[in-house]
Amino acid sequence: MLFKLFVPFAFGYFLSFLYRVVNVVIAPDLVQEFGLNASQMGLISSAYLLTFALCQLPLGLLLDHYESRKVSAALLLVAAFGALVFAYADSVLGLLVGRGLIGIGVSACLMAAFTAYANLLPSEKLPLVNGLQLMAGGLGVVSASTPVQWFLTWGDWRLLFQVLAAASILASVLVYSLVPKYHINSKGQSLKQQLTELWQVVKSPRFYQMAPLSVATQGVFGAFIGLWSGYWLRDYLALSNVQTAEIIFTMAVSMTAGFAVLGWLAASLQRFGVSAYVVSVSGMLVYMFSQWVIINEWSEWHHLWWGLSGFFGASGVLMYAYLSQSVPKSLVGRINTSLNLCVFVVAFCCQWGLGVAINLWPADAAGVYPQVAYATAWSWVLGLQLMALIWFVYHTIQRKLL
């Protein structure tokens, strides 16, 4: 059963992440063909994140009311259509609509998998299986770096999205035909009952204590791995496209390894009474430190520090497994999508907001923005993460004192 359950969802999530970060590599082509500035490029890339985020709350209700395979399979067809719209776009509006449809189409790839795993597998296996699912997304990031750069040497970005559309249709078929069925506990609940339970989950102390730090680090990580890492490496460090792709490849491989290793570590330490959130918070602290090193140029070992940021950058996702274990199975879909909504709203704001901030400084004749623009913008989002850390520490101390 595990093979039929895992492989289709893993393939869908692989595509989800590939869609999410492919603009890192194709951005120069889009800028050249459509004459985009930093703000426009940020908006086009973040359109995926915005529509993805808007889908999360209704998606949580759907996943608690219908089987994951049905929801995910239907939406993947929307992703295929969005990829075709993007591939044939002849204006900025076409690019925006295509990216937005893709965001809707892949919005269930992770949450549908997490919900199915929580309903079909023992709870002690969730951190590891969730980590493997996320590792599949990491492979999507790997594919969006050097492999996509290689693809573009003989094809173009339009052909790439046509291929992705076909792959999305295949993923839809696999999810619907292979994923096992399971019983839905909330089938008889009214929409009002489901919304009431959702509100109870969101306002619980455990959620509002844990969520902000996880949301801030994942949102910022998503903004950089989805677009701005390429700009930093090309413009700030003046690296070539090949060197940029190599460092992004290192970060992607490290992220993939981090998903698997941190998931395994969290599952192993639970046997000794160490909660998954301890591993998650520790990883987020390392991620913030790696950002500080990169911003301040304390080291020229770019592969090392970008690799560390990739490995620990997504450690906040362990909060999904931790929170899933804290609620009844009938609420798993809603607590996961509530957290995911917050993550993608922040990712959207950061990805577009970074472009707006960078655009405050004028670009040179070659379209390159000054280093101070990038350093200032990244420092602002690092400050956002530090504020979330202070919130977490304050509420942790407060709960212990009570």
Report on this structure.
It is a single chain. With 402 residues, the protein is an all-alpha fold. The chain is built from 17 helices and no strands. The chain has one domain: Up-down Bundle (Growth Hormone, Chain: A), CATH 1.20.1250.20. It is globular and about 60 Å long. It starts with a helix and ends with a helix.
Biggest β-sheet strands, sense, barrel: none
- Mean pLDDT, to the nearest integer, reads 84
- Rg computed from alpha carbons, rounded to a whole number of angstroms: 20 Å
Give the H and E element order: HHHHHHHHHHHHHHHHH
Number of strands: 0
Query: What would you say the CATH architecture is?
Result: Up-down Bundle
N- and C-termini, Cα separation: 45 Å
What's the CATH topology name?
A: Growth Hormone, Chain: A
CATH 4th-level superfamily: MFS general substrate transporter like domains
CATH class: Mainly Alpha
- The stretches of 5 or more residues where confidence is low (pLDDT under 50) are none
Per DSSP, the total helix count is: 17
SSE layout:
Elements: H1 2-21, H2 23-34, H3 38-63, H4 68-87, H5 92-105, H6 109-120, H7 126-143, H8 146-151, H9 157-178, H10 191-202, H11 205-236, H12 241-270, H13 276-295, H14 302-313, H15 318-324, H16 332-358, H17 371-401
Helix pairs in contact: 1-6, 1-7, 1-9, 2-11, 3-5, 3-16, 4-5, 4-6, 4-9, 6-7, 6-16, 7-12, 11-12, 11-13, 11-16, 11-17, 12-13, 12-14, 13-14, 13-15, 13-17, 16-17
